[in-house]
Amino acid sequence: MSSSQPKKRYPRPPMSLIVENIEGYDIDIYLGGSAGAADRQLHEENNIKVIFNCAVNLDIDLASTTDHKHQPPLLNFGTGHVRYYKIGLIDGPGNPSEMLLSGYYLLRAALLQRMPEKASYPIKEQGNLLIHCRGGRSRSVALLALFLHLEYPQTYPSLQSAIDLIRIKRELHPDEWYETPKPALIEATEQAALMAKHLQKMTL
């Protein structure tokens, strides 16, 4: 595509079901963009209990219970209707492969984490996962592909096989596959996969 021509944008759902009843976690994994991440009704309809934000330049205020003892100029804070995690990826060059690697481990840990029986940890249910970035077409695709490849190598023997599945399930048009994910993100993700496999061998 010529750099002088405006990029064509293709429609896609606010969030898409990628994998159902994933082995070992017994949850469904969805992938979406900012609209899906900000839609509480959509979360409730699909039993979303964990939201994982991949974008460094996107913040969503999910606090539904706030501490009213604090007044402006303090920003809003409190608990939300989901458990919320974030890894700050750039949509293109600039991400160390270690950031993708840490994103994989944080995502995995978020699914394994169990909440204590305390009032300050209100969301304890092990519901479904929504992983997202701004558009749900590059950063979140890269991180979810890394997770699927490392967790289920027999089903996704290569990073590309996981990306192929996500592109189809996410309804990404073939004309935009050259940047879904961005090439620099794929390269960093491939390096992260090699690092994770090396660490796995060291712990055997």
UniProtKB/TrEMBL annotation:
Q: In what residue span(s) does the Tyrosine specific protein phosphatases domain sit?
A: 109-170
InterPro entries in the record, alphabetically? Prot-tyrosine_phosphatase-like (IPR029021), Tyr_Pase_dom (IPR000387)
Q: Which domain of life is it from?
A: Bacteria
Checking PROSITE patterns in the record gives: TYR_PHOSPHATASE_2
Q: What is this protein called?
A: Tyrosine specific protein phosphatases domain-containing protein
